[in-house]
């Protein structure tokens, strides 16, 4: 599926589920989810459920053409965040990834799909802007497997890694005051996606 088709399908319907969080004063935040998810609010909705199970933060997204996300109790203006994400159930068009610099409804989203694509978006108000359209990349592990994702925000640039490989870099266009970090799940024509997140680590430079 080409990038234009993926984007058109994804932006047709958006579910905004920004989870509650609290501030953290330390320069480093680690969530292994072995003993729960302190500071992460895990609501249950008919379209999205989130829970901690077997050392993972598991998100189930039932609705098609939808994006759901969760925010951690940690924020930075400059820094780095990484996570290991595994597709547990769902079609190969399911995508998942990281949220950075979230302030209310404004944030950036970096995601990879189970069929080997990645993309970068900016969200503000009720609108999405495509910064990097869905693009195939050989570093994405496809199918029901695990991908290690990392985002670095430094100065006027953001960099995005897939399994240790720098996939792309884009200018930091907005949200200069910094913001929270988190994870997300998205669906295309088919819903019923389940993704597990582990080893969530964020480091604040400032």
Give average pLDDT, whole number: 86
Assign a percent range to the helix content.
Answer: under 10%
Poorly predicted parts: 1-5, 11-23
What is the beta-strand fraction? over 45%
In total, how many beta strands?
A: 14
Word description of this protein:
This protein is mainly β and 206 residues long. The chain contains 1 helix and 14 strands, in the order H-E-E-E-E-E-E-E-E-E-E-E-E-E-E. The chain has one helix at residues 3-10; strands at 28-31, 48-53, 56-61, 67-76, 79-89, 95-103, 106-113, 117-124, 127-136, 146-154, 157-162, 165-171, 179-186, 193-204. The strands form 2 sheets. Strands 1, 2, 3, 5, 10, 11, 12 and 14 form an 8-stranded antiparallel β-sheet that branches. Strand 8 and strand 9 (127-136) form a beta hairpin. The radius of gyration is 15 Å and the shape is globular. It starts with a helix and ends with a strand. The model is unreliable at 1-5 and 11-23 (pLDDT under 50).
